Amino acid sequence: MELKDQIKDYQAEISAAEIKDATELEAFRVKFLGSKNILKDLYKELKDAPNEIKKDLGQAINALKLSAEEKFSKGAKKKDFIQLGAKKLDYSRPAEEVALGSRHPLSIIRNEIIEIFSRIGYTVSEGPEIEDDWHNFSALNFPPEHPARDMQDTFFIKKGDNEIALRTHTSSVQVRVMESQEPPIRTISPGRVYRNEAISARAHCFFHQVEGLYIDKNVSFADLKQTLLYFAREMFGEKAQIRLRPSYFPFTEPSAEVDVSCTICNSEGCNVCKYTGWLEILGCGMVDPNVLEASGIDSQKYSGFAFGMGIERIAQLKFRVNDLRMYSENDIRFLDQFKSAY
After folding, report:
1. Exposed end of the chain (fewer CB within 10 Å): N or C?
2. Structural domain containing residue 313
3. Residues 117 and 225 in one domain
4. Is the separation of the CB atoms in 206 and 324 below 8 Å?
5. What pTM was estimated for this model as a whole?
6. Does 93 reside within a domain?
7. Are residues 162 and 275 in the same domain?
8. What is the CATH number of the domain that holds 217?
9. Strand-pair category, 206-216 with 303-310
């Protein structure tokens, strides 16, 4: 049978159809409007039709579909059909369980860090993930020839006189804050950062940081230590202790790495802390005077401290996740474990 004759026959069938109850209505829907309806076969045959009549046949099939939809719509609006369907419902049956989503573990830790620092007056600052050389390097005491630039493998978008790159740390946000605000400044900068590193269980080409900055008159290293001790006890428990080890960062002087006592083994030594009783959580230091001056802040009048931590690192210690790749694989089985974490 030719396609044109099939369309006419189906059109006649639709026009003559007398739908008497909900069962016949459903059968009509399945035949003409369901996922495997007969109209789909007509559209397939249309591909092989001669070009000179293809347009007319296509319009005829579309009209056929509209007729089927109109017929079904009129039948579905009949009151007795609705009542018939309602009688088949068993209102005593338990409701189907609704699957609840869960927050991402990194979002949970990020929000917890923000909440902890907000209690002592820190605000949240955000900035662009694509940065220029000044905010990402130069303003942070990274001169063009400085060897510290080699410490971070950068994704450059544009190289040359006006270099543009994916930010390697959220310290760039701190520079923008110092340029636009007068001290006192007390802020944290959470966000995603990028480094050109091989992806493994312990490293990724993108990760998340929270960096903090406090600038005011007479800020001392003792203020920094007390702030970090407060954070560690709020995050890991009131028995948590910290220790500071001398380190180097271009934008702070003096600088230190911060360890927290291992809460998994109560500092007795385990495979997580490599039997030392301590876990590294962040880097910190007093803001270098050159960094203050680069942003227009008088280093003779003001001083400050800065710190930075990886959210994945904190989440790893809180949730004991040993593979960083799991955070970005979107495996529902992994994410469902954190429904009770907030």
Report:
1. N
2. 105-338
3. yes
4. no
5. 0.69
6. no
7. yes
8. 3.30.930.10
9. antiparallel
Give the CA distances from residue 120 to residues 125, 156, 212, 217, 258, in Å, rounded to whole numbers and listed in that order.
15, 37, 12, 17, 20
- Per the structure block, which two tokens stand in for 57? 């046949």
278 and 263 Cβ atoms separated by less than 8 Å: no
136: its two tokens: 């990402």
Q: What pLDDT, in 10s, does the model give residues 184-215?
A: 999 999 999 998 888 888 788 899 999 999 99
pLDDT, tens only, 125-174: 999 999 998 999 899 988 777 765 665 688 888 777 778 989 999 999 99
The answer for 55, left when phi > 0, alpha when psi is -120 to 50, beta otherwise, is alpha
The two three-digit tokens of residue 99, written as one number: 């699957």
What tokens does 252 get?
């702070």
Looking at per-residue confidence, does 334 or 339 come out higher? 334
Return the DSSP state at 322: -
One domain, residues 54 and 145: no
Distances (CA, A) of 92 to 82, 87, 88: 19, 13, 12
